[in-house]
Amino acid sequence: MSRNSPVWTVGQATIGTAVRTLAPLRVYGAGRVPQDDGVVLVFNHFSWLDPPAFGAASPRQLYFLAKAELHEVPVIGPLVKAFGTYSVRRGESDREAVREMRRCVHEGNALGMFAEGTRQRSGVPGEVKPGAAMVALNEHVPVVCAAIHGSQHWRPGNFHPVSVAWGRPFAFDGLKANGKGYREASVEIQRRIHELWRFLVDVHALGRPRHAVPPA
Q1: Does the pLDDT of residue 145 top 70, yes or no?
Q2: I need a surface site. Which of 103, 133, 180, 214 has the fewest CB within 10 A?
Q3: pTM above 0.70, yes or no
Q4: 24 φ, ψ to 5°?
Q5: Angle between helices 131-139 and 179-205 (to 10 degrees)
């Protein structure tokens, strides 16, 4: 079983508790996340609240990528470094970012990726970029999709409920690590994220029953 670092454990107890309380956060299907070995966890993205929310919802430590400049910001920089965030230099090619992501899962970590590459202001999940598929196909690791809903409406003080739903691990057996394979894999990732998000929309409409089971 993969071990969480002391910093991550403290973060779960502090930042995680704050998110679970102020959002408030409800999580569906967390037991589906593999407890060890490299894996790509792929998310949709609405708000700055999403990284700590997915961190609080994850049963194992997540490793995100962040621009190198963020590591140099006082207070925030040391914090993201301590959480194990991988650094990518601004202006570097996508290949450099992919190398860092591949290194992350190769070392047996859970790589957290926001699939659309940027926040979706419309409040609906967007188009999935090929980065997650490139990592999974080249490193032969499984993918777990997850969706978040409610964070697009959350603001400090309004305490809008936020929910996360995890899908089951899956692999891209039979797909080649080339442009065609990346596109096909990205389409499947997008389908699963959208399906999980629609599940959360329905669950919120029903008052967020605790024992709802997300789709695979």
Answers
A1: yes
A2: 180
A3: yes
A4: -75, 150
A5: 120
